[in-house]
Amino acid sequence: MGTSIDIRGELYRYYDGEPQRLREHVQRVCTLALELGKSHDLPEVEVETAALGHDLFRARSNDFLCRQASHYGIKRSDWDAAPILYHGPLAAAYLYHEHGYTQADVLLAIACHTNLSRNSAMNPVAQVLFIADKIEPGKPKGYNDEIIQLAKRCLSKAAAELIRYIIAHIQQNESYKVPQDLREALEVLILRSSAENNWQPAKSRCFMT
Ligand SMILES: [Fe+2]
Ligand SMILES: [Fe+2]
To answer: What is the rounded distance in angstroms from the CA atom of residue 193 to the CA atom of residue 40?
Structure first.
């Protein structure tokens, strides 16, 4: 476990200089993440810090993201074609190195918020952030209300349902491949969820295949 320093005030101030669209997105993610976190008695400070920190570098240029990824030693050759993928890991590295923030669950949640991952799939703070980031009220409506209600009962099941939806959407509408991190997160969630009673994926939905 890391220290429990509270950097929320600094994070709120950070967004003063960022685009309005990003500020509003982060605020909506915060609101929804706190609502979901409250349903599961997650520490408010951790959930809010993860939500505030997740998109610190979302509005930065590809050149900036690649340079900073090199600086912090987190370069991944398979990400150079899509440098935006660095913004989560970079935010976590920045908070760790520049703010001395070491709460591991929160840093992992921030680093993996775009696609979750094998390591973060069962981390409740990461699940809350992943879900809230994808279905906050400013995002296109899918079946967001259903996911929110499911997430209030079980974060793992909601994360799995959401990943199934995202994978189906990518396969049907996008030219890029389904990210490996997303597939691996779903594998973990399915393995863990299959041990629980009374849950079947919503196979009746066409986008759930
Ligand atoms: Fe993001
Ligand atoms: Fe975001």
So the answer is: 17
Q: Are 189 and 131 in contact (CB under 8 A)?
A: no
Global confidence as pTM: 0.90
- Cα(195) to centroid(ligand 1), Å: 31
Which ligand is located closest to the Cα atom of residue 110? 1
Q: How far is the CA of 55 from the centre of ligand 2 (A)?
A: 5
How far is ligand 1, taken at its centre, from the CA of residue 191, in Å?
26
Tens digit of pLDDT per residue, the chain (209 long)?
Answer: 445 699 999 999 999 989 999 999 999 999 999 999 999 999 999 999 999 999 999 999 999 999 999 999 998 877 878 899 999 999 999 999 999 999 999 999 999 999 999 999 999 999 999 999 999 999 887 678 999 999 999 999 999 999 999 999 999 999 888 999 999 999 999 988 776 655 555 443 323 22
Residues surrounding ion ligand 2 at CB below 5 Å: 55, 133
Burial class for 32, CB neighbours closer than 10 Å (0-12, 13-18, 19+): buried
Distance 100 CA to ligand 2 centre (A): 23
The Å distance, Cα 97 to ligand 2 centre, comes to: 21
Q: Please, are residues 54 and 113 in contact by the beta-carbon 8 Å criterion? A: yes
Pick the CATH number of 8-208 from 2.40.50.100, 3.20.20.100, 1.10.3210.10, 1.10.10.10: 1.10.3210.10
